[in-house]
Amino acid sequence: MNEQVSRAEEKRRKSAPFFDPGDLFVSARLLAGAGYLYYLTTTFEEPSALLGDNVGPADFPRLVIYFIAILAVILPFESHLQPQRWQKIWEGRQHPVAVITWLTIGFLVVTSLIAPVLGTIITMFLVSLLLPLLWGERRLVLVITFAVIFTLAVTWVFNIILKVFFEPGVFGVTAKFIPFL
Questions:
Q1: Residue 170 near residue 119 (C-beta atoms within 8 A)
Q2: CA–CA separation, 107 vs 130, rounded Å?
Q3: What is the distance between the alpha carbons of residues 130 and 51, in angstroms, rounded to a whole number?
Q4: 3-class secondary structure, 7
Q5: Does residue 3 have a pLDDT over 70?
Q6: With contact defined as beta carbons under 8 Å apart, do 78 and 85 qualify?
Q7: From its phi and psi, is residue 38 left (phi > 0), alpha (psi between -120 and 50) or beta?
Q8: Which of 64-78, 98-112, 167-181 has the lowest mean pLDDT?
Q9: How far apart are CA 143 and CA 140, in angstroms?
């Protein structure tokens, strides 16, 4: 039985290409985008020396960019990293992108455009409230509870612990409006 499994595994491994051309194209675009974003982080202002030698404003974005770049480099070789799943992955790519994916992208683009107007706290609450509803969650009490707790927790961590204050937007909503924060 194990001999049959190993033969089937070997056959799958041989049928998978060394790298997928579509993945190579996506990887190249991701790396180009990561390079551009990294360049943008070099234009950030350096904090005053009075603030000490803490994490600078460019450090976290660069960490995310490094992670994206590493994943982009690995992506074209996915067929060899997961040969047992390659056939299923390839079959899944033959289907068009689901409508909910496009709706989510549209929702997040619109949200990112109105975020400076609404402010960070209101935007975070609306995203954590409306995104689960868009995805089909119908337990309204659960979604509202999640949105409130998530928004309060993130606001508490950033404003109270890390002392990073959110953009208030036109409504001026900041952590000062939440009495126990």
A1: yes
A2: 9
A3: 38
A4: helix
A5: no
A6: no
A7: alpha
A8: 167-181
A9: 5
